[in-house]
Amino acid sequence: xxPQTTELTHKLDALAPDSGDRRSAGPEHAAGxxxxxxxxxxxxxxxxxAGLVVFLVALPLCLGIALASGAPLFSxxxxxxxxxLVIPLISRSPLSVSGPAAGLAAIVFTGISAxxxxxxxxxxVVIAGAMQLGLGIVRAGGIAHYFPSSVIxxxxxxxxxxxxxxxxxxxxxxxxxxxGATSFQVGRENTFSLIARALEVIQPGAALISLGCVxxxxxxxxxxxxxxxxxxxxxxxxxxxxxxxNEIFQRSxxxxxxxxxxxxxxxxxxxxxxxxxALHLPDWSAVTRSDVWVLAVTLAVxxxxxxxxNLEAVDRLDPWRRKSPPSREMLAQGVANMTSGLLGxxxxxxxxxxxxxxxxxxxxxxxxxxxxxxxxxxxxLFMAPLLTKIPLACLAAILLTTxxxxxxxxxxxxxxxxxxxxxVPFITTVLAVVLTDLLKGVAIGLVVGLAFVLRESMSxxxxxxREGQQVTIRLNKGAYFFxxxxxxxxxxxxxxxxxxxxxxxxxxxxxxxxxxxxxxxxSSAHLRNIQVEVRGLxxxxxxxx
Length: 545
Description:
Elements: H1 3-15, H2 19-23, H3 40-68, H4 73-85, H5 87-90, E1 98-100, H6 105-115, H7 118-137, H8 149-171, E2 185-186, E3 189-190, H9 191-200, H10 204-222, H11 224-227, H12 234-252, H13 271-277, H14 290-317, H15 326-342, E4 348-350, H16 352-360, H17 367-387, H18 392-406, H19 409-417, H20 420-435, H21 438-461, E5 462-467, E6 470-475, H22 484-493, E7 499-503, H23 512-524, E8 531-535
């Protein structure tokens, strides 16, 4: 690290000195609960190849998201580079990899159109980053802890299902949809209609390459001797094999060779000077425009939520069960989005596709993200001719196997065995994310999860016991308005000629609505010859306002 970077890190530590930063600082620190102690050589052996795999997946994603957002191609690459080189220096997440997010594509597209130019949009990204920095300082990242685990598992599984559904067309040669798209609707078509269309126009070369890559990845994962080669991950071998196979097709069977439109595409540059000339810097003259600030708030909120959800999901993939401090991540994301906006890049979030690809490739530390960022820089400057020989079908095969690992059938059966309160929010989140998008799907899953929580809470508020003509209703916990319906039902079911004891001594809090329901019952109980005795509750006298 440079002295300037070290100084920045110390300042950020002072801003967010929560215990999570130290508890989960990462594997490069001393061993302890949730940490991993490995040498620099081991980091290079595991994380350098994993970073290369993440780079190969991230490269078309950066370009595809930029195209889907209606933004310059370089803006996607800039966001990927900043996500790889800036965030790991500040974040304490060991395995999260950040970059431009497909979930923001619709907001970006609409925002660029509304503001009139990408330069003004870049200013909104800078402001959004400053807002995220502020959220990190006030430690707002803790909101991630309030999402039910069933919803987080459902989101992670849905990402796996999406990877399979979205990459199937690319795997057999239909590249109509941008690589890396995640929304269900694609113009007039949707995810399923694209799969059906792809099956009608299968490209033999792409299908052979993707099948071969999937077979290699599966066999490699099952061969213990090959899995030990941490310096040579299977996805990298698959990419090299796909490039070689397509070269052979072009020479010996041109009819089935993968055509240029189905290969990775890069914008042309004339070296570093050409790259600088392609930057779209922010237009500071628009800083007083209200629509810029409204868009900045939208970007800050949506990007923060997506990052926190993905961060929680990535931690669940970590074999060493390390925990990422969310408020520290908000600081990192804020600095990165300010940097990306200043350079004319897209907004950045933590991205589950890149992160899970790094985990599956054997990545162990934040170095995976740094290496992937360095490879993106080298690709833009020097590697374009080589990278444009990579078939998209091969990259689709890598994401297909990643998707299967995230959405194994056993996971569905395991969640079902946990009962309806876990399975229903889980499967609802899966279906909602697949049929809408990430944030909408999680919001729907969260509502369903909260409904089950309220149901469980209401069922345990009251305890009823009977001894002859005496019925005792005890309030075991705080009685809030949402448990009023169950209490009124209990009152209505009471038989005539009984003595009812309402014992609220164990309830730390009784809502005003609950007290009203009890007074209403007291006022009408004599009609059924029911005597009411209230213990441990201070209620206003009957007839008072």
